[in-house]
Design brief:
There is one protein chain. The chain is an alpha/beta fold. About 30% of the residues lie in helices and about 20% in strands. A hairpin with a 5-residue loop joins strand 9 and strand 10. The two termini are about 30 Å apart.
């Protein structure tokens, strides 16, 4: 596959025309008929993918029909979890999205695959739940948004904090002026790579590809590179050919919260300036391990994202003229402290309410309404 990777990228992007649109997914106005279960295929079932698979299996409206993973061990475990026979599994995502009996797909692969798989799935007539980030570049992100609109497909990005009550409360307080006029946003993410599944240093020499892994498919559109276990699975995050480290690993979540609270889902900062960037001098782990990013919005709000070892700063902090609010998952810290007891007035702006990110996706597959984290917001 390495010799034809460029051609594979072009064909997967679908530049020549649409793929098959299965009739099984089409109800009224493209909706799944309400008396049928959503038939789901899962692409990538290691790590977050396994968690997503389990979450969807808990929804009685969902029937998982297929599992795709380039690692046969992951694939076998996913098939077992879903109660499927071996023939329901594949190592080639194209086989899964070409199935006419599948309505929607879940994608949890390394970042460099997200937009390509999402685009191909959309063109096959499928709705998509894709892990963050939605895409690995601005161009790819716009490509996904354009296709989602063109084919009227439902997209849910895995920025699940939008389905958390504390995040929503914080953003509603900010949007309704309970901290005064918003001035600054501060975002903190970890500063040291978390290496999993082995005592890797990033200096490992070329190794023999294990028989259970289709390494060429794992690389896909990325540049050819010698195999080492230190490169694959969870640790892909620290290699710029596949991801930019914590900027998207955690930053995609916290910056998404910042966008929501700043009421800038349909736009972006007008400037971004990096500084204090530090990378490892040797080895394959070359993503920024320390950095500062300064953003400026057209509305005058300034934002800074830093890498830090101080875990108390990991999250999103909104700073206004009359107070502040910090939010991360179940953590909610306000200044003044009494802000925590604030209840919105009937005239206040209410934000999109979702209490379960996976169920919200299935709700939208049926209703054809926007998800909590649609393509444009994720992009």
């Amino acid at each position: 596959m390495s010799s034809t990777r460029r051609g594979f990228l072009k064909s997967t992007l679908g530049l020549a025309g649409p793929l098959i649109v299965p009739s099984s997914v089409l109800g009224k106005e493209g909706a799944t008929p309400p008396n049928e279960r959503v038939q789901l295929g899962c692409i990538g079932v290691g790590g977050m993918g396994s968690g997503n698979l389990s979450a969807f299996l808990q929804d009685k409206r969902v029937e998982v029909l297929g599992i795709c993973d380039v690692d046969a061990n992951h694939r076998a475990k996913g098939l077992e979890t879903a109660g499927l026979k071996p023939e329901a599994g594949t190592g080639d995502f194209r086989e899964l999205i070409a199935r006419e009996d599948i309505d929607a797909v879940m994608i949890a692969t390394p970042d460099h695959w997200h937009a390509l798989m999402t685009g191909a799935a959309i063109k096959s007539g499928k709705d998509v739940y894709c892990e963050k980030p939605l895409a690995a570049s601005v161009v790819e992100g716009r490509y996904v948004c354009r296709l989602a609109e063109q084919y009227r497909r439902v997209i849910q990005c895995g920025t699940w904090r939008r389905s958390g009550i504390y995040t929503r409360m914080a953003c509603e307080w900010v949007r309704n002026g309970y901290i005064g006029k918003l001035q600054r946003i501060e975002v903190g993410v970890p500063a040291k790579f978390e290496i999993r599944h082995g005592k890797f240093t990033g200096l490992e020499k070329k190794e023999i590809v294990p028989k259970e892994l289709d390494y060429e498919m794992w690389l896909g559109p990325a540049p050819n590179a010698p195999y080492t276990a230190a490169r694959c699975h969870f640790n892909f995050r620290w290699i710029t050919d596949y991801a930019p480290g914590y900027i998207t690993d955690w930053g995609a979540h916290f910056l998404d919260v910042a966008q929501w609270g700043n009421d800038t889902d349909d736009t972006a900062p007008i400037s971004v300036a990096p500084s204090e960037v530090m990378r490892r001098e040797h080895g394959i782990y070359n993503a920024p391990e320390a950095f500062r990013l300064d953003y400026r919005y057209a509305n005058g709000v300034e934002m800074t994202m830093i890498s830090t070892a101080d875990q108390s700063l990991w999250g999103t902090k909104f700073i206004g003229e009359e107070g502040s609010v910090f939010t991360e998952n179940t953590k909610l810290i306000t200044d003044p402290a009494g802000l925590r007891t604030t209840k919105l007035k009937p005239t206040d702006e209410k934000l999109y309410e979702s209490s379960n990110h996976h169920r919200n996706f299935i709700d939208s597959v049926y209703s054809r309404e926007a998800t909590a984290a649609p393509a444009e917001a994720a992009h």
